[in-house]
C-alpha cells in the first residue's frame, strides 16, 4: 500500500477519534470552548451533552415483581395475554420518563409473573399504583369540528397560566379533554376476542374483532352514524390504532385493515386482547436501590476499568516495545469508539454491562498478541520489514477471525436466552469484540505501515517481543 493511502486512512481515523472523544466526554471540550469565548469574546457553540444511560444498579431505582391472575383465561391464550400485558405496562412506565425500563414476563411452574425494573424513578409509589391498574380499552369517535375548535381555543386560553389562574378560568376543565376524539359506550368489556388473520385476496395481515351481543348493538349504532369517519382505539388513554369506518357493522364482527407488518398486527392483537380480558396483577416483591449505592458501584466499576486498561497498556509496552506502544494507542482509540457507540446506540449500562466492556478491553489486545508473535517469526525469515509485516497480519488473521467469531456466538446465545443483566453483559461484550477486531487489524496495521522504509525498521530490537 502506498504511503499516501496510509496517511489518508490515519487522518480519517484521527478525525473519527476526535469525534468519538467529543461525543464521549463533551464536558472537557466545552470547558475549552468557554475559555476561548470568554477570552476572545467569540460565540463558538458548545457540543451537545448526551449522558450515558445507566441501569438500575448504577443509577438507583426500583425492582418490582408482579403475579398475574390468569385463572379466567384459557391456558392456550395465557402466553399471548402476558405478552399483551407486558406491552401495556411498558407504555405505562414510559409515561414516567424512565430511561430504558425493563419489563419482562416469567413463568415459574403455574405462576405467571411480570418483572419491572425502573431505573432512576423518583416516585415509586405512584408508579406502583399506575402499573397495578387493569388495562382499560376504549373506542372513541371523532368530535364535530366546533367541539374540536372549542377545546383547542380553551387550551390556548390557559396556556402559560399558573394553576390558580387556570382554575379561575371559566370551563377550564374543557382543556383537559381530547380535542379530536370523544368517548363512546363501546369499551373493552364488550370485546370477546381479537385475532390475527390474512386477507385472502392480497395476503396482507388483518385484525378480526368479535363483540358480544350488547357490544354488537353499540357497534352497529356507532358505525351507522360515523361511516367514513375514524373510530380510534385507546388503551389507558393512549391511542394505539385509528381505523376508518367503511360501512355499518350490524353483526358485531369487524376487521381492521391497513399496511400492517405481521409484527405490528400481532402487537395490536395482543394489546386489544389485554385490554379486553381483565388480567389483574398483584405486587409480590419490591426492592429499591438507592442512588448513593448506585454511585458507589459506578465509581468502583470505573476504577476497575481504568486499572484494567493501565495494566494491559503496561504489559503490551513491556513485552512488545514499539508495537506495544502502537497497540496501546490503538487501545485508547478503541475505548473512545466503544464509549461513543454506547451513546449512539443508547446502550443502558449496568454493572454486568460494564463487566462485559472491561473484559473486552483485555480481549482487545488478543489479536495484537497473535499478530506480533507471527511478525516475530516472519522477521526471523525475511529481511524485508514490509513483507514480514503484511505476512504476519495475513497468517494471523484466521486465528483472530475464528477466536472472535466463537466468542461472538457465545455472546449472542447469552443475549438470546439470558436475563436482563446477562443480556447487558453479552451486548457490551459483542460491541467490544467487533470494535477490537477493527482496531487491531485495521488501525494497528496502518500505524505499523508508517515505519516501512524508515530508519526505525532497521532497529530489530524495537520489533521483537521480550520473550
What is the element layout, followed by pairings?
Layout: H1 3-24, H2 26-40, E1 53-54, H3 56-59, E2 61-68, H4 78-94, E3 102-108, E4 111-119, H5 124-131, E5 137-142, H6 145-158, H7 163-168, E6 181-187, E7 191-198, E8 205-211, H8 213-225, E9 231-235, E10 238-241, E11 253-256, H9 262-276, E12 281-289, H10 291-344, E13 348-349, H11 351-363, H12 366-381, H13 385-417, H14 420-449
Parallel strand pairs: 1-13
Antiparallel strand pairs: 2-4, 2-12, 3-4, 5-6, 5-9, 7-8, 8-11, 9-10
Helix pairs in contact: 1-2, 1-10, 1-14, 4-9, 10-11, 10-14, 11-14, 12-13, 13-14
Summarize this entry quickly.
The protein has 467 residues and is of the alpha+beta class. The protein contains 14 helices and 13 strands.
Q: Can you walk through the features of this model?
A:
- The protein is an alpha+beta fold and 467 residues long.
- It folds into two domains: 217 residues, Multidrug efflux transporter AcrB transmembrane fold (Up-down Bundle); 190 residues, Gyrase A, domain 2.
- Helices cover 56% and strands 17% of the residues.
- The strands form four sheets. A four-stranded antiparallel β-sheet has the order 3-4-2-12. Strands 6-5-9-10 form a four-stranded antiparallel β-sheet. The chain has a three-stranded antiparallel β-sheet with strand order 7-8-11.
- Helix 4 packs across helix 9.
Amino acid at each position: 500500500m502506498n504511503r499516501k493511502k496510509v496517511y489518508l486512512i490515519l487522518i480519517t481515523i484521527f478525525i473519527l477519534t476526535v469525534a468519538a472523544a467529543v461525543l464521549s466526554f463533551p464536558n472537557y471540550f466545552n470547558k475549552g470552548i468557554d475559555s476561548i469565548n470568554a477570552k476572545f469574546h467569540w460565540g463558538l457553540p458548545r457540543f451537545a451533552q448526551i449522558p450515558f444511560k445507566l441501569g438500575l444498579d448504577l443509577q438507583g431505582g426500583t425492582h418490582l415483581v408482579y403475579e398475574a391472575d390468569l385463572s379466567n383465561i384459557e391456558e392456550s391464550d395465557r402466553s399471548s395475554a402476558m405478552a399483551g400485558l407486558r406491552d401495556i405496562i411498558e407504555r405505562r412506565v414510559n409515561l414516567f420518563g424512565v430511561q430504558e425500563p425493563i419489563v419482562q414476563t416469567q413463568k415459574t411452574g403455574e405462576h405467571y409473573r411480570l418483572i419491572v425494573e425502573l431505573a432512576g424513578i423518583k416516585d415509586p409509589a405512584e408508579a406502583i399504583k399506575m402499573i397495578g391498574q387493569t388495562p382499560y380499552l376504549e373506542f372513541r369517535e371523532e368530535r364535530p369540528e366546533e367541539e374540536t375548535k372549542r377545546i383547542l381555543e380553551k387550551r390556548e386560553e390557559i396556556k402559560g397560566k399558573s394553576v390558580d389562574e387556570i382554575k379561575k378560568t371559566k370551563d377550564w376543565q374543557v382543556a383537559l379533554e381530547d380535542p379530536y376524539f370523544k368517548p363512546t359506550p363501546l369499551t373493552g368489556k364488550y370485546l370477546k376476542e381479537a385475532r390475527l388473520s390474512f386477507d385472502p385476496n392480497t395476503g396482507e395481515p388483518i385484525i378480526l374483532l368479535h363483540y358480544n351481543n350488547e357490544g354488537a348493538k353499540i357497534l352497529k349504532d356507532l358505525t351507522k352514524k360515523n361511516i367514513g369517519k375514524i373510530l380510534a382505539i385507546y388503551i389507558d388513554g393512549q391511542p394505539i390504532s385509528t381505523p376508518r369506518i367503511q360501512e355499518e357493522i350490524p353483526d358485531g364482527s369487524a376487521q381492521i385493515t391497513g399496511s400492517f407488518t405481521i409484527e405490528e398486527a400481532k402487537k395490536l392483537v395482543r394489546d386489544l386482547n389485554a385490554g379486553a380480558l381483565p388480567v389483574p396483577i398483584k405486587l409480590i416483591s419490591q426492592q429499591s436501590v438507592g442512588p448513593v449505592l448506585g454511585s458507589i458501584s459506578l465509581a468502583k466499576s470505573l476504577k476497575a476499568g481504568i486499572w484494567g486498561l493501565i495494566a494491559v497498556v503496561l504489559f503490551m509496552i513491556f513485552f512488545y516495545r514499539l508495537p506495544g506502544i502502537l497497540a496501546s494507542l490503538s487501545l485508547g482509540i478503541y475505548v473512545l469508539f466503544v464509549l461513543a457507540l454506547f451513546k449512539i446506540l443508547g446502550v443502558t449500562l449496568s454493572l454486568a454491562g460494564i463487566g462485559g466492556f472491561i473484559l473486552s478491553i483485555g480481549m482487545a489486545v488478543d489479536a495484537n498478541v497473535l499478530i506480533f508473535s507471527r511478525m516475530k517469526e516472519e522477521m526471523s525469515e525475511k529481511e524485508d520489514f514490509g513483507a514480514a509485516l503484511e505476512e504476519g497480519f495475513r497468517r494471523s488473521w484466521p486465528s483472530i477471525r475464528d477466536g472472535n467469531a466463537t466468542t461472538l456466538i457465545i455472546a449472542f446465545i447469552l443475549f438470546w436466552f439470558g436475563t436482563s443483566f446477562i443480556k447487558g453483559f453479552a451486548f457490551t461484550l459483542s460491541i467490544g469484540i467487533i470494535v477490537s477486531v477493527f482496531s487491531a487489524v485495521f488501525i494497528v496495521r496502518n500505524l505499523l505501515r508508517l515505519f516501512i522504509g524508515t530508519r526505525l525498521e532497521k532497529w530489530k530490537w524495537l520489533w521483537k517481543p521480550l520473550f
